[in-house]
């Protein structure tokens, strides 16, 4: 029982790596969407801190940040769209 539990993490890593190897385009798209989302979140948080805005004024600030950088929004849409490419 103990040896079976010890190999569980290794088997899950092997399965994850096999899925990544079998689906490189989907993996690249999801990675692209995750990185673009993270970067936009950092930009929005920085702009909100700089402008000292509250929650009510956050929507226009978010739209202005995303509007200045439409490539990141496109990367998110295309990256998530890679899930339904079949």
Question: How are the SSEs ordered, and which strands pair?
Answer:
Blueprint (H helix, E strand, L loop, with lengths): L1 H5 L1 H15 L1 H28 L6 H11 L1 H12 L5
Task: Describe this structure as you would to a colleague.
The mean pLDDT is about 85. With about 90 residues, this protein is mainly alpha-helical. Helices cover about 85% and strands about 0% of the residues. The termini are far apart. The protein contains five helices and no strands.
Summarize the structure.
By secondary structure, this protein is mainly α. The protein is built from five helices and no strands. α3 (24-51) crosses α4 (58-68) and α3 (24-51) runs antiparallel to α5.
Please supply descriptive tags for the structure shown above.
86 residues; 5 helices; mainly alpha
């Amino acid at each position: 029982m103990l040896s079976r539990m010890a190999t569980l993490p290794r088997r899950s890593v092997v399965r994850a790596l096999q899925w990544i190897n079998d689906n490189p385009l989907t993996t690249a798209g999801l990675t692209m969407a995750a990185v673009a989302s993270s970067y936009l979140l950092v930009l929005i948080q920085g702009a909100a801190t700089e402008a000292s805005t509250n929650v009510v004024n956050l929507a226009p600030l978010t739209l202005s940040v995303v509007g200045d950088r439409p490539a990141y929004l496109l990367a998110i849409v295309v990256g998530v769209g890679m899930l339904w490419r079949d």
